Structure formats: C-alpha cells, structure tokens
Amino acid sequence: MKAVVLREFGAARNLCCEEVPEPEEKSGWVTVKLRASALNWHDVLVREGRYGSRLPHVLGADGAGTRVDTGEDVLVIPSLWWGDDDSAPGPGWEILGDHHAGTYADLVTVPADCVHPKPAGLSWQQAAALPLVGLTAYRALFTRGRLRKGESVLVLGAGGGVATSAVSLAAACGATVVVTSSSAEKIAKSRELGAADGVLYTETEWWQEAKRLSPHGRGFDVVLDPVGSWQESVRALRPGGRVVVLGSSVRTDAMLDVRQFYFGQYDLLGTTMGSPRDFAGLMSLMESGDVRPPVIDEVFPLDQAAKAHEHLEKGGGFGKVVLTHD
After folding, report:
1. Do residues 250 and 146 lie in contact, with contact meaning Cβ atoms separated by under 8 Å?
2. pTM for this prediction
C-alpha cells in the first residue's frame, strides 16, 4: 500500500510517500481503507520527535474511510485506550500516530472500539477533519469547562482546528462566543460559524476589549486557552469563571498573580483529547443538526503530505488541512 513514511525526525521534507506492506490483521482490531486524513499540530510535534516514535513511522491521528471487513463507512477515533475513568486517561492511553502507525496511508488498523459510523451529511474530508479537534473541543467546553446554554465563552486563537470546532460547538449549545485572532478576516469567518464578535490579540491589553464584549461587560464564564496565555485568560473571566487550558502553542510556561486568582474564585482546568463517553456526547451534538460541519482550509493529495505540513506550519489558514487518498 501507499503510505507517508518518516525515517528521520525534523523538517516537513522528511515525509516521503512510499510503498509499504499492508498492516497485519490482529484480533480485536479492524482495518479501515482511508478516503481522507486530516493534519493536526500534534502531527508536527510527532514529526519533530517530541513523542519518541519508533522510526520508520507513519504519522496521522485523523481519518475516515471504509471498514475492510464490513464495508461500513466510518471515521477513526484517535484516542486509544483511555480507560474507564472519565476524569483523566489511564496509563496506557495514547493518540493514534504516536507509537502506532497512523492515518497517512491507504490502510490503518485500530482497536475495534476506535471506529464510529461516518455522520450523515459530512463529506469524506469533513469526516476526517472531525475526530481529534471535535473530541478535544467537546471535552474542553462541556466535560471540563461545564459550559451551559446561556453562558459565555472566549476562544483564543481563532483559525486553528480546535478553535473553529469550539466556536461551532459552543454556539450550537446556546452560548455567547467571542474569539481572539491576529486578523480581522479570521474574526469575520468566526462570525459565520456562530461567534458574536472578536478582538485582535495583537492589540495591547486585548483582554480588556474582549471583556467589554462579554455579556454586561462582566467577563466570561469560560475561557478556552490553547495557546498558554493564562494571565490574560484569567483577567478576561468573570468572578468565579473557568479557564480551560488545552495547549501551549505560544507559551510553555506562565505566571499567575496568586492573590488575584484565589480572590477571584477562579478554576484553572487542564484537558487534552477525550474519553469514549466524550466522543459519544460529541456525536449526539453533531446529530442534532445544529453544529456546522468542520471547516476545511486546504486539501492536498496524500503524496504531498510534506507540502501540507509546510502549509500548516505557516499558520495563516482557517480550519483544517486535509489529505485525500483517491
């Protein structure tokens, strides 16, 4: 079969399309013939060697295609072996494409409980783009962030896959959504997904302007922070609000005013990916028909995965980058 193989950690150019053996059948696992796969920033970190993958390696967490054994159209759930505790993943948990061959290939083999029927109405590209960011955003908003109808949420960094998914999901549940971005164009596109407004984080003390856009100017019930701006996120909250941290794309460390934090009665919550129960909740919300399909930024053929990574790393897109397997 055809697969994108990484033989040396480093730059995007190290991703090469090759002919490789098909995956071996294993009891309790199923093989999916992929029609599309989607990129995530996590893939870049795997490519750089951050997760200690054994080389040569096939990357990719997201994908959609047809089960070889049943002919059913499915999407791949990239959260492997979460366990029974919804509060946190178990010690065996990992993301597909970290240590097991991923979705940048014609075929992928995953545990049988890691496939789900392809949602009606989604294209192959949209279905492939949904699982990782949809699951991550759903858990961040509702399981960890406890967001409810009528509340407000500030989503930092509009344009990325998780952020665009979060805007759609939060708006669908009846929350007021405000975003931050580096461009007015991305704020405008976020409005099309259901955001009420947005602010440019390039402006000094942008959090003050964001707070003014919250209901009654009091601050947000929830701030979704995939970038690491904890200090500013807390400042944008209402008293008793919650910051949900799900990434560190800008900062890997942060400082907080401890007195401000405990007098504000704030919650600081960490999260990543999600459990099978979170995924079931995501699918239920998707089936309600109120959630917009995943936003597709650019599409590349599988053998141009290196170019797709280069495009992703430029950071100017809005939505998901997808590989097609036709």
Report:
1. no
2. 0.95
